[in-house]
Amino acid sequence: MSPMPIQAIAFDLDGTLVDSLPDLTTAANAVRQHFDLATLPEADIRGFVGDGAAMLVARALAGDYKATPYDHPQQALAMTVFAEAYLACVSAHTELYPGVLAALQSLQAKGLPLAVITNKPLQFTEPLLQAVGIASYFQQVWGGDSLTEKKPSPSPLLACAEGFGILPAAMLMVGDSKNDVLAARAAGCPVVAVDYGYAADVDALAADQVVSSLTELLALLPD
Q: pLDDT 10s digit of each residue in the chain, 223 long?
């Protein structure tokens, strides 16, 4: 693949920059325990991640991917329980994926503006970025509650590109899920998927490129 005319890069968070599944599982199971439900294995929670905290809580509460925040009368209470539990363990077992720090350092050295665009609410995103030591690399951080719409809507990507003063076609989106690819396609951004994230079949996402480490992004960029 030839180098892309990229002027900025936006990253998804969970499953792309950090492996947060252990702590998300702890918080999701705190919700289930509050309602006297049996805990779920991490493998089940993995399939519930990617559409924001409200969807994760709804799915965890029901033990069903098809659940929505409107299915359970106790959703509001469940969200409160989840928030308290997750903020207490937001970085307890969450780690950067291999190659992430090196890639961010190299991209910053190249002078590329960087952003995070995640469906995770900002109340969790900002402390997590601080806790894992990468907050300073990003000029923009967009959470799932920053706008009225989140990925797969193109809205946060379009707003981010506008914030950088560039066309969407010049901003690369890097993620691990169908939401990242769909949002990028709708916004007119090129998109790279990582093969170590939470998607069951990364090739099915049909990204422009698949990488096994963020350090591989450097080869996709012009010198």
A: 445 689 999 999 999 999 999 999 999 999 999 999 999 999 999 999 999 999 999 999 999 999 999 887 899 999 999 999 999 999 999 999 999 999 999 999 999 999 999 999 999 999 999 999 999 999 999 999 999 999 999 999 999 999 999 999 999 999 999 999 999 999 999 999 999 999 989 999 999 999 999 999 999 887 6
Under a CB-based contact definition with an 8 Å cutoff, are residues 179 and 153 in contact?
A: no
Q: Identify the H or E element spanning 89.
A: helix 75-89
Cβ atoms of 46 and 24 within 8 Å: the answer is no
74 contact partners, CB below 8 Å, separation of at least 6: 35, 61
Domains along the chain?
8-19+94-220 (3.40.50.1000), 21-89 (1.10.150)
Tell me which residues are annotated as active site: 12
The answer to whether the pTM exceeds 0.90 is yes
Distance CA 191, CA 182 (A): 9
Q: In angstroms, how far is CA 104 from the centroid of its own chain? A: 16
User: What are residue 209's phi and psi, to 5 degrees?
Assistant: -155, 150
